Amino acid sequence: MADQGLPDFLLPPSVKKVDDGVFVANDVLNLPDACLASIFHFLGPGDRKRCSLVCRRWLEVEGQSRHRLSLNAQSDLLSVVPSLFSRFDAVTKLSLKCDRRSVSIGDDALIQISLRCQNLTRLKLRSCRQLTDLGMESFAKNCKKLRKLSCGSCTFGAKGMNAVVDNCSSLEELSVKRLRGLTDGASTEPIRPGLVASSLKTICLTDLYNGQCFGPLIIGSKKLRTLRLFRCSGDWDNLLEVITNNVKPLVEVHLERLQVTDVGLASLSNCQNLEILHLLKTPDCSNLGLTSVAEKCKLLRKLHIDGWKTNRINDEGLIGVANYCVNLQELVLISVNPTSSSLEKLGSNCRKLERLALCESETIGDAEICCIAAKCTALRKLCIKSCPVSDHGMEALAIGCPNLVKVKVKKCKGVTYDGAGWLRASKESLAVNLDARVVENVNVNGSDRVQGAACDLVNVVDQHHS
Known about the structure:
The protein is α/β, with parallel strands linked by helices. The protein has helices at residues 26-29, 33-40, 45-52, 56-64, 81-87, 107-116, 133-142, 158-167, 215-220, 237-246, 262-266, 287-296, 315-324, 340-349, 366-375, 391-399, 417-426, 456-463; strands at 15-19, 22-25, 68-72, 93-97, 122-126, 148-152, 173-177, 202-206, 226-230, 252-256, 276-280, 302-306, 330-334, 355-359, 381-385, 406-410, 431-434, 437-439, 441-442, 448-449.
């Protein structure tokens, strides 16, 4: 846009007036719609909105090329659904979120949206408390191409969920959190496999009072690769045994604050393709269950354990992991108390171990850090949080771990900036973070360069302790 102060007849040939007070270069105006739409895909939401205001053609192209839309799902959305989806008629990914203090959309709005978005592949519903089973049933019949559904704090129940699994034969990912309609205890209708039994690959259940009603769906999903169960009430041992006897392709399992014992944990040994296991705050699980899994699941490459200070998983279980899981690449231990005996075994046997986090452990001191420095030669990222280590441990790290690129030390009172300085001086490319302050490195040219110091593993740790 240029030369807006000139009369039309004085405009240069390369500039054309397309609307009141709007001037655009002719070469831009000559771009085909498909090319213009491709350019819009590289822009953020704000820039796309500004581009849509340039002229009527750009408004139309921007709307028709927008595939992702996020809307405030308050009740007054109903009145604008026809005009809104006439403009955005190519949406395939839709997010409907309502503020908890507001009245959300109801069935009428969702049905109207489903009639206009029959190519929808992803839907996210948050706090849509006026939706019922009837609305979800109509939606599922209209949007049969759905591949991903995520719903949280909604009030529809088992009938609505069964309508989805009975109609959306392409569904691959299902995430359900705090579904209010499932609070009827044993009388809740089971969620059956339906048509999604041959397509579903990921199931995530969070904060469900009666999450076990999803049992038939999980058991019947023969292609299921990822199962995440967070804070779902009830005893899960028996159901996990049935699941793992029937669903062999499982590659990733997350169990957090779940009532499960070594019986349920050991049943995961039936999943010999298991690569990722998160065992967080399950106080009834011990070395016995962990060793059973390690012995059969030799492809395990990521293991996260939060012992919740019960000390039922310690050196014995970790030595079992070291003996059988030689492909281990990432290990996160929270409130677990390993010693040099298991760390030495892990370092010697797990030669691919690249990422290690040790948090809130009473036994991780300088001797253990020295062991890591000497044995974990492939280690690239290390996080130490709330452990009794000192500068002597940092000095050992400065000498060992030749492939180390990131170190984060948090809430370790014995470590000072002198210790961090030794690390900095030992390896020019090493990013060191001591609590909130970043230790700066100096590159070979002498100019200051602040390395990205946030260890990726710390983000995982902080999420579970925030």
